[in-house]
Amino acid sequence: MTTPSTASDDPHEIQDAGSLLGLHTVAAQILVFAYVVTFAVVSWTDSPPGGFWYEFAAWIVVSIGAVALILVPGDPLPLSATLGLTVVGPVAINLNFVRTPLPLEGHLPLWTLGAATAIYAYMCVRGRTAWAWIGMLTMLASCMVWTAAGGEGAFYGLSISVINLAPLLMATFFAWTIRPAARSIFELRRQRTLRVAAEAAGAAILEERDARLAELDELARPLLEQLAQPHPLTPDVRLRAKLIEARLRDSLRAPALDTPRIAEAARQARTRGVDVVLLDDHGMDAASPAVCAEIFRAVAGALDRADAGTLTVRILPPHRDTLVTVLHSTPDDTTRLEYGLTGKALAPRV
To answer: How far is the C-alpha of 126 from the C-alpha of 123, rounded, in Å?
Structure first.
């Protein structure tokens, strides 16, 4: 009997706020692709004279950051990835500053501000809010230093960049709300999955018990009714009782060999006077159906051939080179057969 596996057993399943928002889906990959293409067009079309390679480098930096947001696993983000994403904004904006002239003609030349702000917003969702704010404030400080050095004053740098605080502030409050909710949702789902698995296991146990009771009723009830009658026991009744007791013992001591074909072959062998012993030390619990079929055929064949003595079939413990041994002892001879992990007979040991 096996217990159904739960969803939480899957090592590839990421259960965090990012999963809840679909950051690990194909739709998220399409969105990141659109992000990369959009800023590639912006950096190309708005590149100042002599600044193409700086703009291109800034685009590479923000593109790597966006891809890392959906590919790097873990909740919260691992520290190494967090540090890398934190410096995306300052690095990209300072590359942007190298050839961008002052005063600005609109805000499009500083496209890296918006690109990095999007990354920082999703860092909040991935559980790194403080680091996102560090990156954002560093970007704002960089803008103030740049405009002050260019003769426009630090306040001008603040005025052109402070608007990006609004989306990050909203992302911060959103993360404070959604992350606890995500934990609660996944915890409830985990509990539900465990409950369903426990119910399924309980149902399987009850089903197995009912099957055993039905088998016992079919095998033993007629004999018990006959034994309850005030008549002496005949040799035939005694033999039937012996065979039923052996059949029930086999089902308990060797459940892996409890098949109709082997049970019938064992009954016939015992009828011929063979002492049959079936043992299961669980070495076949993980065997494939093909290997089990080979073993079942071999065991049934050995039982069919036996006509005297003692025949012991044992499934060995796991992690051994030999899977099953068949020992047939008679007053004149002893034969031992071994079957390997493939279900085939092994060469006799010298």
So the answer is: 5
